[in-house]
Amino acid sequence: MTIRGFIFDLDGVLTDTAEYHYRGWKRLTEEEGIPFTREDNEHLRGIPRRESLMLILKGRTYPEGKIQEMMERKNNYYLEYIREISPKDLLPGARELLEEIRAAGLKSALGSASKNAPDVIRRLGITNLLNAVSDGNSVERQKPAPDLFLHAAKQLGLDPAECVVAEDAAAGIEAALTGGFRTLGLGPRERVGQAELVFPSLHGVHLDMILSAFSQ
Ligand code: BG6
Ligand code: MG
Fold first, then answer.
1. Ligand 1 cavity residues, CB under 6 Å
2. Which single residue of 5, 61, 92, 147 has CA 20 to 30 Å from 209?
3. Taking Cα atoms as reference points, which of 106, 113, 160 lies closest to residue 130?
4. What are the domain boundaries of the chain?
């Protein structure tokens, strides 16, 4: 099928908020005396807020009220860090690719598990380059369920097989494959090797390269 649209994950694809998520969780876990490393953080790529906290707690149990408070505290730290985000925080190649897609008459959507995604894309200055936004508030079941990407494809009026999903997380690639999308993995093969096409990042990646790879 011809490619007519793209669905971009946000964190780790268009901008590097993984570092801010790390700092938010690090500050919270230090306050709570819970061990948490950068390596642990790697496993949280694409994972929603609550599930991330559950993974960090590694079976430690807390009352629901305390869980809610910890998620809110981490998010407040995160919001404090992302206040500094501006268009210069777009990862290399991101704006160019979004502009090429638009110029070619194809469509772009955001497919991010983050509830803060609309705020982040506004700060990055790319809201007007996206035809649709699906975020952490759009669906119940998050990645690796395909629901978020299906929600985005529906907003674009496209079939999953007509859309390329660009993802940096294993959970995101799995979600896209389950939904019947074409997959562009960004990052090391150990992480995104299940994708049909893999690049280290969007740096130097152009629309014609992607379209020709998927037309073979
Ligand atoms: C994803 C990130 O995009 O969003 C995860 O990769 C994060 O690390 C998730 O936990 C949820 O984000 P938020 O902003 O709703 O806490
Ligand atoms: Mg990501």
1. 10-11, 21, 44-49, 52, 75, 112-116, 136
2. 147
3. 106
4. 5-16+87-215, 18-82
| CATH of 5-16+87-215 given 3.40.50.800, 3.40.50.1000, 3.40.50.300, 3.60.10.10 | 3.40.50.1000
Q: How far is the CA of 31 from the centre of ligand 2 (A)?
A: 26
Q: Going edge to edge, which strands form the sheet with 197-199?
A: 132-134, 107-111, 5-8, 163-167, 182-186, 197-199
Residue to substitute in 16, 28, 52 for testing ligand 1 pocket (most ligand atoms within 8 angstroms of CB)? 52
* Rounded-to-integer distance, Cα 53 and Cα 37, Å: 13
Residue 216 has pLDDT above 80, yes or no: no
pLDDT for 127-167, tens place per residue? Answer: 999 999 999 999 999 999 999 999 999 999 999 999 999 99
How remote is the CA of residue 173 from the centroid of ligand 2, in Å?
A: 10
Hey, what CATH topology would domain 18-82 get? DNA polymerase; domain 1 (1.10.150)
168 is catalytic: no
The yes-or-no answer to whether 5-16+87-215 and 18-82 have a common fold is no
**Is 147 a known active-site residue?**
no
